[in-house]
Amino acid sequence: MTDRALAVVRAGALTTVQDRGRPGHAHLGVPRSGALDGPAAALANRLAGNPPDAAVLETTLDGCSLRPRSTVTVAVTGAPCPVAVDGRPAAWGAPVRVRAGSVLDVGAAVSGVRAYVAVSGGVAVEPVLGSRSTDLLSGLGPAPLTDGAVLPLGAPREGHARVDVAPQPAPPGELVLRVTPGPRDDWFTPAAVRLLTSRTYHVSPASNRIGLRTTGPALERARRDELPSEGMVLGAVQVPPDGTPVVFLADHPTTGGYPVIAVVHPADLPAAAQARPGTPVRFVAVRRRRESEGAAFATGL
């Protein structure tokens, strides 16, 4: 039995293994997946001395508890939360040394939704299509963590970031999402298109890794016929029959049959990973200055 492993003492509400995902497989019906808050995951890896593509743990709201079988360096980023080792407070957002057999406890998020736990060497579960990410939609990758599970760890690199604190953006008090027109905005009335970017929505408790669902004014369609299924991208704002927008996140389906009224700028999506239910959401229209600039809004397949 290798000592480069991590035992799960408390799995939490939903803790998954995530890396930078598996883009480029949409033609196979495989979502992108990967850490919802990519910058937070990358920072955790940097603090723990890992390469940026190492797999980390993504927790949801109530954290998790872990026991390493060898001494490791860990870093917790993303949603601010209490961190403790064997019951003693430890640093959040900085490297922490955890001895073999000690228990690292990542507590409930004080604000935000998802914390990221990087361990020196990275979580070394078997990759699928080039990624170790858990994909909740397709079922690819490792299953969400359960109490008692054991995760293999990779070989650590020499050294880690020597910092007192690493600046991180606070979870949003208001989620502002820049959008460009979607391919099916003409399926909605002009009033509905204006409504999307002039009224405030709120994050729905039904949100998950597949999509950020909203509550608010319904968007009226100008066309009532059926739309054949077509490709979907990361950040697509799809409008189901109830008329309230859904922003597609990392585990989104690769095709869909509801019209896409807009597409969110990719740089705004990490904040969506940290928006709690009830958070106000504003969609802000921006203009495409060049075709190449606009194309950046349609990445994510």
UniProtKB/TrEMBL annotation:
Residues 27-298 form the Carboxyltransferase domain. The keyword NADP does not apply. PANTHER family: 5-OXOPROLINASE SUBUNIT C. Gene3D superfamilies: Cyclophilin-like. NCBIfam families: urea_amlyse_rel. Keywords: ATP-binding, Hydrolase, Nucleotide-binding. This is Biotin-dependent carboxyltransferase family protein. Pfam families: CT_A_B.
